[in-house]
Write a structure and sequence with these properties.
heterodimer; A: mainly alpha; 8 helices; 55% helix; B: mainly alpha; 6 helices; 73% helix; rod-shaped
Chain lengths: 200, 142
């Protein structure tokens, strides 16, 4: 009996990407919108001139252009889209993209055939914006003041600054998942209130 | 760590923290913040759909530009034809003799070749040139 060569997985077509967008449920869309807003804020000075929807748009366009290939059998659309947004934000933050119109380097994990764009190899200095520095300082102060009597949230805040993962934080602070999520929620709401002037 | 770096790390972590929530919690938090989940869902879907639409339009615009570029190249290219009207008519006869389809095309519009103006002859020769029906030998030498 002859063994068939393994079938090379093919990335999703444009039509499949469109179908996947149509199939997103309301909670999934709200989740994406919320994550996109936080990711946009994470760009700092490099987010100037971009809005919170740009990362979502850029992620979809990267998929449509084939710079980010979605293999349906490997990962669901929502997770993949979130991953692409995270990757794009990371590239922009790291200064590897010169501006909002730069090509984004292919993801070597699922895009092995592509070569790195030379632009990606030119790190640039993000301009220092004193106003943003001031806003950032104010936000840090506001968070500390707001949670002066809520050490759980303050510790989670410190852990976030240390780039600790949720599981690490929970283990380190001895929190259950529920307690951690509740405290993270208090922090999210306060931060959102501070930056958007909404409820705290 | 500068304040701005701190804030970048914070927002990154906040984005990741949303992943730990159930669908119900995501919707509930949205409502508690005084935002409408329905509006946000609609807006987010529109952003995604607009990205697809923009991508398709961009592809269409690129195709149209390529077509226009090709057309402009063809239009700009002019074949050197013999100087005298008589020589040009002779060349047209020769092309028709070589290419029957060209002859049929021409007959469909001009029943009587003798009634064709010199401009008609020149125009047909240029068109046949663009169609690749003129040989290098057909163009007069320097």
């Amino acid at each position: 009996m002859t063994r068939q060569p393994p079938v090379k997985p093919t990335p999703a077509s444009r039509e499949e990407i469109e179908q996947a967008i149509e199939a997103l449920t309301a909670p999934q869309l709200v989740r994406l919108g919320t994550i996109a807003a936080f990711r946009h804020r994470s760009l700092g000075t490099r987010g100037v001139g971009r809005n919170e929807h740009d990362l979502l748009s850029d992620a979809i366009i990267a998929m449509l252009e084939g710079r980010r290939k979605w293999f349906k059998a490997k990962v669901d659309f929502l997770s993949f889209l979130k991953g692409v947004m995270r990757s794009l934000a990371s590239h922009i933050r790291a200064g590897k993209a010169l501006d909002a119109f730069d090509e984004i380097a292919p993801n070597p994990v699922n895009d092995e055939d592509d070569a790195e764009d030379f632009v990606e190899q030119i790190p640039t200095q993000a301009p220092v914006d004193p106003e943003r520095q001031l806003l950032a300082g104010n936000l840090d102060r506001q968070i500390r003041e707001q949670f002066n009597d809520d050490p759980e949230v303050l510790l989670i805040y410190e852990a976030f600054l240390e780039k600790m993962k949720p599981a690490e934080i929970q283990a380190c602070l001895g929190l259950t998942e529920k307690e951690y999520n509740a405290a993270a929620k208090r922090l999210r709401r306060t931060v959102r209130g501070c930056v958007e002037g909404g409820p705290r | 760590m500068s304040d701005e770096r701190k804030i970048r790390a914070l927002f990154e972590a906040l984005a990741d923290s949303v992943d730990g929530l159930s669908d119900e919690e995501v919707l509930a938090e949205c409502r508690e913040d005084g935002r409408s989940p329905e509006d946000i869902a609609r807006q987010t879907r529109a952003v995604l759909q607009d990205a697809v639409k923009g991508f398709k339009q961009r592809a269409l615009v690129a195709a149209r530009e390529k077509h226009q570029e090709r057309t402009a190249t063809i239009t700009a290219k002019s074949f050197r034809l013999p100087d005298s009207p008589a020589a040009r008519r002779a060349l047209l006869d020769a092309v028709i003799a070589r290419h029957q389809q060209a002859g049929r095309l021409l007959t469909a519009q001009h029943r009587d070749f003798s009634e064709m103006t010199d401009e008609d002859v020149e125009s047909w020769l240029q068109q046949f040139g663009h169609l690749g029906l003129l040989d290098q030998n057909d163009e007069p030498g320097e």
